[in-house]
Amino acid sequence: MSSLPAPARLTDRKRAAILDAAVAEFRQSGYEATSMDRIAASAGVSKRTVYNHFPSKEALFAQILQQLWERSLDGLDLAYRSDRPLRAQLLELVKQKLSLLQDANFFDLARVAIAASIHSPERAQEMVARMGDREEGLTTWIRAAAADGRLKTDDPLFVSMQLQGLIKGFAFWPQITLGQPPLSAAQQERVAEATVDMFLAYYGQA
């Protein structure tokens, strides 16, 4: 007879099952129509178990968004290097960002989050703040490049927001709001090259 899993491991497995089920329910039905009962049934656990892990649907959704934002920057190397060509560094960062934005879960849950935020300004503020926290690394890179005399700006946050806007104008908002398909590899390459060249033409030091 096989021994039962350790309680901590079983708890972790149940939590993971709840999160997976919640992602599927939110993607399929949206925020308002998804209930903790449906999530529990989909995860194969009791509703009490769901509430033991997450005190509310709001808390569960917030945890999913947190993981979403964290995954959107996983693997990004945002450390500024004074010994490397500026364009090569920025091009690599933009290409990585474009690649990470193509995740299907990312698009679907971002749509759910935006739709849910329309009915809750507080939730929208939290979501925007969380996104800003995850994109702070790019601001830090720009600040370091400016301090090294290789970018012309005294407002790294403003410049970072501009760069993010150039990227998301092609690889986020059209997919979220208009249902356009993710960018192909060739399209990502074109957007990355044009974005970096436009950015450096204005902010790069001669």
Automatic annotation (TrEMBL):
PROSITE patterns listed in its UniProt record: HTH_TETR_1 (PS01081), HTH_TETR_2 (PS50977)
Q: Which Pfam families match?
A: TetR_C_7, TetR_N
Keyword terms of this UniProt record: DNA-binding
Boundaries of every HTH tetR-type domain copy: 12-72
Q: Which InterPro entries match?
A: DNA-bd_HTH_TetR-type_CS (IPR023772), Homeodomain-like_sf (IPR009057), HTH-type_TetR-like_transc_reg (IPR050109), HTH_TetR (IPR001647), Tet_transcr_reg_TetR-rel_C_sf (IPR036271), TetR_C_Proteobacteria (IPR039536)
Question: Could you tell me which residues form the DNA-binding region?
Answer: 35-54
Source domain of life is Bacteria
Coiled-coil-forming residues are none
Put simply, this protein is called TetR/AcrR family transcriptional regulator of autoinduction and epiphytic fitness
